[in-house]
């Protein structure tokens, strides 16, 4: 995710900003920039690539100044480039802004600002903020920023600076974190504490809708209604390494906990009117193009492949279109049957997985239309596909994929609704029912994330075993596969997933006294069948840990442990049911003292065949 740093005080600001940006590097970024107020006015420098590229460009020649803002950008709107990097300026270069988040209505704002005579140079959503501030500026930067953010729909954490008021930084937030560091005769602003932890441990945390005026000697924070607030001072007790992980012991846990936010970001602007309608404007597919699709071929690796399996269940059920899912490493060597009306759907968090990319290129050679779901703007997959649906999970650092998987599922559901609408097979009411259910998921997920203790207990049972089984029927089977992969990957316990009905065709021979079997039971239509399979395991003394949909009471009496999952429409249950499996894998790996974030032999991005 992007990083923000701001400084105002008596020290040379440039080195403090660069140092702060380096402390935020762990979040992932593709370009960096700074804006410094110096004797000759605002000086802005930015560069694509690492912070070192920015430093090389600046050399030793950056003018001195004691206040400024800096940013590491992780591209969302517009590919990584010098021009798209932050800070962004208005037309006059007297205003500069850094921003994290997504401005949903940036296109209409941009159009309106252009009508007012503003000229844009980047492809970003952020640039509208700089022009809005400039547009409303009448000698009071706080008022201009306040008017600008009122115009904006979406999420933001932002800091603005202007030449005319060189004694202050103005910041504001909505749905994206921002924290103010309190020094002696100097103050800091950052999207994340590590940026200034070297200088101060005292902070004010900005809440949604609040704005602040930060000078070298004072910090004034205002409520959304403009009232001056008396905020408490918080003391950061984490060390630097913990602070990078937001106080969590591992990135994986931090990323699991970020999932409600990742879902909200991914649905923002797409599920409209609280889910009553769907619009994936970025795909710009006409109803005719959507109607022409006769088959969908999903290609991916690892966790992304498991997301594709869930997508198959959803698309076949809702769109009544045949969907095939293939591992990219198999697809590329098996001469797949692709007719011209097959849509090839490529899923990749990183957008750089060698096998996935090769599969995409094979489909391109065959002349198929390619739609990619990826988390990285400007990645090879994004560049080579015809259409891209981005997941807005933010950078994923732990090798084990969690929030990327969840946002891939959400994207597949949204794509299904969109295709259903464009093909004219889903009426408004069905779309609204599914859409509103999707919008409820982040809140339901929060309630699951608050139940870690239950999962820690289950992990204690699992940890001493060297083998475990996962079973499920229907879409639960796809989730079981992902649960087993998570457990293998980070705890090194050998785990296999089976379709529940397949056990008796061989695997039942492996069920011995006490062996852990994780049974998914979230699909109302097959609950009875799932229960029968559980009984087969119990009869052989297996230890059944059941993840059951709320209301499936009978399961509690039949199994050894049960974790109830809030109810959603059956087909959407994977978004909720996979999360306890992620936490279970996590706590099991911790109990086995495994290096959770960097499991042995694995890499985050697999760029070799
Ligand atoms: O970047 P991609 O989504 O293309 O990566 C695919 C797999 O390598 C990845 O999902 C892998 O399976 C994860 N480490 C699983 O947690």
Largest sheet: 8 strands, antiparallel
- Low-pLDDT segments: none
The tally of helices reads 20
CATH topology of the largest domain: Glutamine Phosphoribosylpyrophosphate, subunit 1, domain 1
Q: Beta fraction of the residues? A: 15-25%
Question: Roughly how many Å is the radius of gyration?
Answer: 25 Å
Please tally the β strands and state the result: 27
Which structural class matches the secondary elements?
A: alpha/beta
Q: What would the average pLDDT be, to the nearest integer?
A: 93
Secondary-structure topology with pairs:
Layout lengths: L2 E6 L4 H11 L7 E8 L2 E8 L2 H8 L8 E7 L14 E2 L5 E6 L5 H10 L11 H10 L4 H11 L4 E7 L6 E6 L4 E4 L4 E4 L11 E4 L5 E4 L4 E4 L5 E2 L4 E2 L4 H5 L6 H7 L1 H9 L3 E2 L4 E2 L8 H5 L3 E6 L1 H18 L3 E5 H4 L10 E7 L5 H12 L3 E6 L5 H5 L2 E4 L12 H20 L5 H22 L2 H11 L4 E6 L2 H17 L2 E6 L16 E6 L5 H13 L3 E7 L4 H5 L2 E5 L7 H19 L18
Parallel strand pairs: 18-19, 18-20, 20-21, 21-22, 23-24, 23-25, 25-26, 26-27
Antiparallel strand pairs: 1-4, 1-10, 2-3, 2-4, 5-6, 6-7, 7-8, 8-12, 9-10, 9-11, 11-15, 12-13, 13-14, 16-17
Helix pairs in contact: 3-4, 4-5, 8-14, 8-15, 10-14, 10-17, 14-15, 15-20, 16-20, 17-20
5-amino-5-deoxy-1-O-phosphono-D-mannitol binds next to helix 10 and helix 17.
In short:
This protein is of the alpha/beta class and 609 residues long. Helix content is 36%, strand content 22%. Helix 10 (302-319) packs parallel to helix 14 (403-422).
């Amino acid at each position: 995710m992007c990083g923000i740093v701001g400084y105002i005080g008596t020290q040379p600001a440039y080195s403090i900003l660069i140092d702060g940006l380096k402390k935020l590097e762990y979040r992932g970024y593709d370009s960096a920039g700074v804006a410094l107020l110096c004797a000759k006015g605002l000086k802005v420098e930015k560069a694509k690539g690492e912070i070192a590229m920015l430093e090389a460009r600046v050399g030793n020649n950056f003018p001195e100044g004691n206040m400024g803002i800096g940013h590491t950008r992780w591209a969302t709107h517009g590919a990584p480039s010098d021009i798209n990097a932050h800070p962004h300026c208005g037309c006059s270069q007297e205003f500069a802004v850094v921003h994290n988040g997504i401005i949903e209505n940036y296109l209409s704002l941009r159009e309106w600002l252009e009508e007012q005579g503003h000229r844009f140079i980047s492809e970003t959503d952020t640039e509208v903020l700089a022009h809005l501030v400039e547009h409303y500026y009448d000698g009071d930067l706080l008022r201009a920023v306040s008017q600008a953010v009122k115009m904006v729909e979406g999420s933001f954490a932002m800091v603005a600076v202007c030449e005319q008021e060189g004694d202050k930084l103005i910041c504001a937030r909505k749905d994206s974190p921002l924290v103010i560091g309190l020094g002696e005769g100097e103050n800091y602003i950052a999207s994340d504490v590590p940026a200034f932890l070297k200088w101060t441990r005292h902070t004010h945390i900005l809440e949604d809708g609040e704005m602040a005026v930060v000078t070298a000697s004072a910090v004034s924070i205002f409520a959304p209604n403009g009232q001056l607030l008396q905020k408490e001072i918080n003391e950061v007790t984490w060390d630097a390494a913990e602070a990078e992980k937001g106080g969590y012991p591992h990135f994986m846990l931090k990323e699991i906990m970020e999932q409600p936010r990742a879902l909200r970001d991914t649905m923002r602007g797409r599920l409209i009117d609280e889910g009553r309608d769907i619009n994936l404007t970025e795909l710009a597919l006409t109803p005719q193009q959507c109607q022409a699709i006769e088959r969908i071929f999903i290609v991916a690796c690892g966790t992304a492949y498991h997301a594709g399996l869930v997508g198959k269940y959803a698309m076949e059920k809702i769109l009544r279109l045949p969907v095939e899912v293939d591992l990219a490493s198999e697809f590329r060597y098996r001469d797949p049957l692709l007719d011209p009306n097959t849509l090839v759907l490529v899923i990749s968090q990183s957008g750089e997985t060698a096998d996935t990319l090769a599969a995409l290129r094979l489909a391109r050679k065959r002349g198929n239309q390619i739609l990619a779901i990826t988390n990285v703007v400007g990645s090879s997959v994004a560049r080579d596909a015809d259409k891209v649906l981005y997941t807005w999970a933010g950078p994923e650092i732990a090798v084990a994929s969690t929030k990327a998987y969840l946002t891939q599922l959400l994207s597949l559901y949204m794509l299904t609704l969109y295709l259903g609408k464009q093909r004219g097979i889903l009426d408004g009411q069905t779309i609204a029912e599914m859409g509103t259910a999707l919008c409820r998921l982040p809140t339901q997920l929060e309630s699951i994330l608050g139940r870690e203790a239950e999962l820690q207990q289950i992990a204690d049972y699992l940890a001493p075993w060297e083998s475990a089984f996962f079973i499920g029927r229907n879409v639960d089977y796809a989730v079981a596969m992902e649960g087993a992969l998570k457990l293998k990957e980070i705890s090194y316990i050998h785990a296999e997933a089976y379709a529940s009905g397949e056990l008796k065709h061989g695997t039942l021979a492996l069920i011995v006294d006490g062996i852990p079997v994780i049974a998914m039971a979230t699909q109302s239509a097959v609950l009875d069948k799932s229960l029968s399979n559980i009984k087969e395991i119990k009869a052989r003394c297996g230890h059944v840990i059941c993840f059951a949909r709320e209301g499936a009471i009978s399961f509690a009496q039949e199994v050894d442990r049960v974790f109830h999952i809030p109810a959603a429409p059956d087909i959407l249950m994977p978004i909720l049911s996979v999360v306890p499996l992620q936490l279970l894998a996590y706590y099991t790996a911790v109990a086995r003292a495994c290096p959770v974030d960097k499991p042995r032999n694995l890499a985050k991005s697999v760029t070799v065949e």
